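In this section we walk through a basic example: taking a raw amino acid sequence and producing a predicted 3D structure, encoded as discrete structure tokens. The instruction is simple. Fold the sequence below.
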Amino acid sequence: MTLAAAAVADPARIRPARWGFAGRVGLSVLAAVLLACLASLPWSMGKVETGATELARYEASNLTLNLLPPVWRGLGESDVARIAAARDAGQYVPSRILGTDRLGRDVFARVLAGGSISLLVGLSAALIAVIVGTLYGTIAGAAGGRVDAVLMRFVDILFGLPSILLVVLLAVAVDGILERRGADLSAFARQAINIATLLIAIGGVSWLTMARVIRGQVLSLKAKPFMEACRAIGVSPARQFTAHLLPNLVGPIAVYAALAVPAAILSESFLSFLGIGVREPLPSWGNLAAEGLGELNTVESRWWLLAAPCIAIALTLMSLNFLGDELRERFDPMRGRRVA
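The resulting token sequence is shown next.
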């Protein structure tokens, strides 16, 4: 029996295709990473006493307890003595889930807090790219003619430029301005400006592909009979976009958004790894990986300091790519619906 015959015989048997195994795995892993990073924020960013001051847990340090091993490796006699002395003196003692770094900071708390920062940057930069690309592509496709030609030639010019170099140049330029005005800005303001610059820089070079995709979709939809009917009865351009174009663009937008987030997270991690993204003491997966890389040596390799942020990045990127592939398959107009 064909799909059309089945639909006539029993419409209730036609069901949307179920999520594939990769899509379910990607969604589950992504939900677990988001829950772990966001639900732990009150703990990882909560205040702890470090002597006469209170600091957030992710930046609180105790130099006498630096480079403690993680919980699965066990403690040596010197480590036990250091922890006992710190507790007797009433000093801050970090958790040993992933050990401590060279400054005696809790690596587990920093990985969770850094995940929140990396995910925030990735999601926000992808949101900027989706909004700008959707509006730009819609305007180009709807206007057509010379306007479309001029707008898309501008996109072609930007495509010819090395995007990561533009991001680096913008981040370095803003950092130079902040260095000259360092005395006038607090540490919080400097961190906020650095993160905002990172969001604008990554989002500002990530919308080009989105603009091309949406422009092609709009050109295709403009030729459909329902759009010709809208123009014939005098529907306003704004109404055409919100009521007719946008609902038909949800599929490409959802797919691109799911694929743009891992690219933005990877860009942020790469820039932070180079030291021009998120700065200390604020953690991100990128600068945590940069710190952990220095602990790989032939004398005593503390590989877990590098493995922890790298595994977190890998799990997040893989889950988002699985989710993007599933959305692309579900929104594919050439793919039929399965019969239950």
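Looking at the output, two observations stand out. The chain has 13 helices and two strands. The longest strand covers residues 47-50. In the next section we compare this with other chains.
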